[in-house]
Amino acid sequence: MDNADQIRAAATQLFASVGYDGASLQAIAERVGVTKQTLLYHYPSKDALRRAVLDHVFAHFRERLPKMLDAVTSGHDRFEALTRELVHFFEADPDRARLLLRELLDKPDDMRRVLAENLRPWILLVAQYVRQGVTSGIIHADVDPEAYVLHVIVLVLANVAVRPVTHGVISAEATPDETHERQMQELFRLTRTALFNR
Amino acid sequence: MDNADQIRAAATQLFASVGYDGASLQAIAERVGVTKQTLLYHYPSKDALRRAVLDHVFAHFRERLPKMLDAVTSGHDRFEALTRELVHFFEADPDRARLLLRELLDKPDDMRRVLAENLRPWILLVAQYVRQGVTSGIIHADVDPEAYVLHVIVLVLANVAVRPVTHGVISAEATPDETHERQMQELFRLTRTALFNR
DNA sequence: CCTACCGATCGGTAGG
DNA sequence: CCTACCGATCGGTAGG
After folding, report:
1. Is B13 (CB) below 7 Å from strand C?
2. Is the CB of B38 under 7 A from strand C?
3. Strand, coil or helix: what is B175?
4. How many domains does chain B fold into?
5. Looking at chain A, which residue has its C-alpha nearest residue B142?
6. Measuring CA to CA, how many Å separate A21 from each of A28, A53, A103, B17?
7. Do B165 and A119 touch (CB under 8 A)?
8. Residue A49, in any domain of the structure
9. pLDDT at B50 over 60
């Protein structure tokens, strides 16, 4: 991994944890062990670094898309497998979830375009699979396919992003990990039950 | 509304839209038409202003709590009424949702304490109502009550917060308002179907 | 002695 | 990739 990659990785972490404005170029450079000026050699502006970070997250997402779509051919466990792939993608690096959520809040206009390009085609495709499930009778007839798929994505994204906080809200004697595991189990149950006829 | 209240209101808007670090005291003061020094007279530091903003949101939430809990005595439409109260609370001022989501990302440790105090007792109470519904047979036996209630809150919060982006993701010819209405209708269907036996 | 401010400026740091 | 800087703006405080 060269310096440009290391800088992007450090920026991803810092943007995710303290936000774009909260992360100074100096702080990002220090994490990598280079000067701020070296950073600005690789990325000519802070905004260029932002775009590089975001592009990299979506590049990873597109890489996993075929695997995700393989999971959703037909039947009950197939849709759950898709949700699991989604959870796996964000839990593999929770900074992805926090970063995307921050971008959604910070740059709604930009993100509308980015998501229209990167997420919309995929949502429409999965929604078509949902419609096939309705036709074959295994899925509730009153589901709104596109809205449902978006809800699943939002729910996974938000739950992974706010995971550090969840524990204090519903836990009793359980550990933070157990609480999160419980939360994700209910996420699978909830999204499955809301979709399929029994 | 005196200057202190106006400053808090302006800070709420700016913190919600550009984040805590992105909102300068100068910009907040300018919105109200006072100097930055006047702001610092009312709130001795930026962090004090942050706490005042957050406290005010939770004060509003606690105000509406009795009404919310009235809604959840028993039966199908009662739980939906509770979700509608929650949606109403955040849609009445979407800045509340954006602000809370930002705080969850910016200050997870602080928010864990804040939510343990302000949200946890209420979640546990509603979860007890869910358990009663399980006993009486109207609610699915495999629901995780606390996790379910938290998912509903997270789903409402996230959907209101990212509303400006939703339209570009699933819409075709519909207006942004119609798309959001569709999204919220599916939210009600999803949370209802995941809870109740048919 | 208190309240609600003002114009000016402090030491540091931002992105570039 | 580094040294040496810039215009501007940051959160916070001075006396009156």
Report:
1. no
2. yes
3. coil
4. 2
5. A189
6. 12, 15, 12, 13
7. no
8. no
9. yes
Provide the pLDDT for residue B74: 57
- Please count the other Cβ atoms lying within 10 Å of the Cβ belonging to residue B73: 12
Residue B8 has pLDDT above 70, yes or no: yes
Domain co-membership, A67 together with A116: yes
List helix spans (H) across A43-144: 46-70, 76-91, 94-106, 108-118, 120-135
Any domain includes A37: yes
Region B121-143: what's the mean pLDDT?
95
The residue that minimises its CA distance to C1' of D1 is A38
Mean pLDDT of B31-39: 90
Interface test with B, best of A103, A157, A170, A197 (most B CBs within 10 A): A170
Q: Which one of B20, B154, B183 makes the best mutation probe of the A interface by having the most chain A beta carbons within 10 Å?
A: B154
Closest CA to the C1' of D10: that residue is: B24
C1' nearest to CA of A3: which nucleotide?
D1
Q: What is the mean pLDDT of residues B34-46?
A: 91
Contacts of A147 in chain B (CB under 8 A): 170, 182-183, 185-187
- List CB contacts of B6: < 8 A, sequence separation 6 or more: B32
Q: Quick: pLDDT tens for B79-100.
A: 889 999 999 999 999 999 999 9
B145-168 tens-digit pLDDT: 999 999 999 999 999 999 999 998
Please report, rounded to whole angstroms, the spatial distance between the CA atom of protein residue B36 and the C1' atom of nucleotide C9.
13
Report if residue A148 sits inside a domain: yes
Same domain flag for B3 and B83: no
Q: Does any strand C atom come closer than 7 Å to the Cβ of B3? A: yes
Give the angle subtended at the CA of A121 by the CAs of A119 and A126, to the nearest 5°. 95
Query: How far is it, in rounded angstroms, from Cα A51 to Cα A103?
Result: 11
And the tokens for A100? 């995307």
Cβ atoms of A143 and A130 closer than 8 Å? yes
Chain A positions in Cβ-Cβ contact with residue B168 (cut-off 8 Å): 111-113, 115-116, 120
Instruction: Express each pLDDT in B62-77 by its tens digit.
Output: 999 888 888 777 556 8
Which nucleotide has the least CA–C1' distance to A22?
Answer: C14
